[in-house]
Amino acid sequence: MTTTNTKMEEKRGEENHSSNSATFRSKVEKMQGIIHEYSAGGWDKCWEQRVTPWDLGQPTPVVLEILEKKTLPKGRVLIPGCGAGHDVIAIANPERYVVGLDLSENALKRAREKSSSSPNAKYFEFIEADFFTWHPTEKFDLIFDYTFFCAFEPRMRASWGKRMHELLKPDGELITLMWPTDDRDGGPPYKVSVADYDEVLHPWGFKATSITDNELAHVGLRRGCEKLGRWKRYL
Ligand SMILES: C[S@@+](CC[C@H](N)C(=O)[O-])C[C@H]1O[C@@H](n2cnc3c(N)ncnc32)[C@H](O)[C@@H]1O
To answer: Which of 90, 107, 168, 217 could disulfide-pair with 59, CB 3.0 to 4.6 Å?
Structure first.
């Protein structure tokens, strides 16, 4: 991907999250309309039509901070619902092999175009599959969930918790960026709370090792309604 394209993508990300909340809300409404109209294929339609108001156009700042502070687990990493793959590319290195999973062909087309000439390309891959039915050959040391838990209907959350248990190694870590924690109706994004995550993770032995406000939610509309959770299993 060229520097010009990267800049354009970052600009689109900024526009997606401009402080002009009316514009942002109308993009979200358009996205919700597509998802409800096309059901399972809705996400791919959104990517195809470039209605992606969630896309920051760059890696998630708090992930870069955790990486810099050297507290991000090493080994095999899974990012479910990776979208355009900004975080996948950002954290892949000789110490971390990252799998970006998404069911949208168009999202992964974008991710692959963006990353084809990345110097770290041998440390990541993109896989097109459904998180709820996918069977990898090996489990993961780290799973990072951002804007994925909130993407599907609350009735799916128990299955999400079970999958986290199945996909993580016994001593693996789950990192969740929990958004949106403000009050709202409908979705996606569906509103979330720390208790919602705990409810579906606790039965599998997960406990939060830390829950903090994400001060780096640089996006105006997300600031104040995003929390960082780190979870491990103690059974
Ligand atoms: C709200 S977007 C978030 C994308 C990315 N995490 C980001 O923050 O930019 C949700 C993503 O999850 C993907 N997705 C939705 N349901 C999925 C499923 N069951 N399995 C895999 N990916 C899924 C969608 O295609 C979409 O790219």
So the answer is: 90
The partner residues of 124 in beta bridges, in order of sequence, read 98
pLDDT per residue over 49-104, tens digit each? Answer: 999 999 999 999 999 999 999 999 999 999 999 999 999 999 999 999 999 999 99
The answer to whether the CB of 146 falls within 8 A of the CB of 160 is no
Give 95's Cβ-side CA count (13 Å radius): 9
70 contacts 27 by C-beta, under 8 angstroms: no
Fold of 51-233: Rossmann fold (3.40.50)
2-49, pLDDT tens digit by residue?
555 555 555 555 555 554 678 888 889 999 999 999 988 999 999 999
Mutate to test the pocket of ligand 1, among 148, 159, 167 (most ligand atoms within 8 A of CB): 148
How big is the chain by its Cα radius of gyration, in Å?
17
Q: Ligand 1 centroid vs 67 CA: distance in angstroms?
A: 22
Q: How far is the CA of 82 from the centre of ligand 1 (A)?
A: 6
